[in-house]
Fold this sequence. Notes:
Layout: H1 5-20, H2 26-38, H3 42-49, E1 85-91, E2 94-97, E3 102-112, E4 115-119, E5 124-125, E6 129-137, E7 140-145, E8 150-158, E9 161-163, E10 177-185, E11 188-193, H4 197-221
Parallel strand pairs: 1-3, 2-4, 3-5, 3-6, 4-7, 6-10, 7-11, 8-10, 9-11
Amino acid sequence: MRASDAERERVAESLRDALAEGRLDMEEFEQRLEAAYTARTHGELEPLVRDLPAPGTAGPAPAPRHPENEAEVHWPSRIGHPPTSKGGFALWSGFSRKGAWTVARRFTAFAMWGGGNIDLREARFEDRETVLRLFTIMGGIGVTVPPELNVQVKGFGIMGGVDGNKASGEGTPGSPRVTVVAFALMGGIGVDRKLRKAQKERLRAERRGGGELRDRERKELR
């Protein structure tokens, strides 16, 4: 798993705490800090703090968190609402379902010589089990799901394609199950996992803050 700037910065903070508590000498601290800032994966980060306790305690230091996968959605509040849309249709045109809309337990969409956009990142759900039935002829339909959602993609294409293997997977505890059943004739249907807007903004802020602190730290080391 690739490491983020925020995860590298959390490890660096643990190393600074260990230096302040006398658990690391300056030479070892500098070596580990440099390794933390150049680490590319979680496997490179974890050994740097594996033998260090959490600051002020005798227990082990926490492993790097993965902010892009944290469960920030309160699923019970987003399940069990009356649907605002049960389908979408596009003929020489397009349709879009995004924002705080409520998807029906059975949602059917069709696009011919047109396209459709279905965004579930901020959506609410009529039921815990949801089926999206998607059909396209010489058109395209795109589905966007959040990282926390339980998703399964089934389908095939004739002179076209259904792309959803990377999006299929388990979600966070309590998340609804969304099954995408798709068929494409001379067209395409794609399902992608993307971060929600709030998550993107938080990660950008963490990267900016971590980048500034990392630059100062490197200047001090030099």
